[in-house]
Amino acid sequence: MILEIAQIDVRPGAEAAFEAGIREASAIFRAAKGCRSFTVRRSVEKPQRYRLLIEWETLEAHTEDFTGSQAWKDYRAMVSPYFESPPSVEHTELTLQAF
After folding, report:
1. Residue 10: helix, strand or coil by DSSP?
2. pTM
3. What are phi and psi of 8, to 5 degrees?
4. Could you say which of 25, 59, 74, 81 is the most buried, measured as most Cβ atoms within 10 Å of its Cβ?
5. Do residues 68 and 35 make contact, with C-beta atoms less than 8 angstroms apart?
6. d(Cα 54, Cα 84) in Å, to the nearest integer?
7. Cα(30)–Cα(51) distance, rounded to whole angstroms?
8. Nearest in space to 6 (alpha carbons), one of 46, 49, 48
9. For residue range 9-36, what is the model confidence (pLDDT) as tens digits?
10. Which residues does 12 contact at the CB level (< 8 Å), separation at least 6?
11. Partners of 52 in the beta sheet?
12. Average pLDDT, whole number, for the chain?
C-alpha cells in the first residue's frame, strides 16, 4: 500500500470553492483503478493549506494508471484554478503502525 500525500496551498479567499471542487472530485478517485481511500485535511495553523491523503494499491496505480489520464485531467480542472502554487506530492510506505 502506498500513501500519496499532496500538499495544496490555495489562493486566499478560494477555500470554499476549492473544498466544493475537491468534494466533487472525490468521485473520480472512488472510481480510479487501485485507489483505496481519499481523505482531505485542512491545516489549523494555515487554513489555506490542505493535504490530500490518498491510498493506492501500488505506486504504479497512481503514477502510471491515474496521472495523465482523462480522470486526472478532470480532477485537475475541478481544483487547479484555486491553487496558489503547484502542489507538492510525495509517496510513502508504512514503516510502523504502533497503535
Report:
1. strand
2. 0.94
3. -125, 125
4. 25
5. no
6. 21
7. 17
8. 49
9. 999 999 999 999 999 999 999 999 999 9
10. 48, 84
11. 6, 40
12. 97
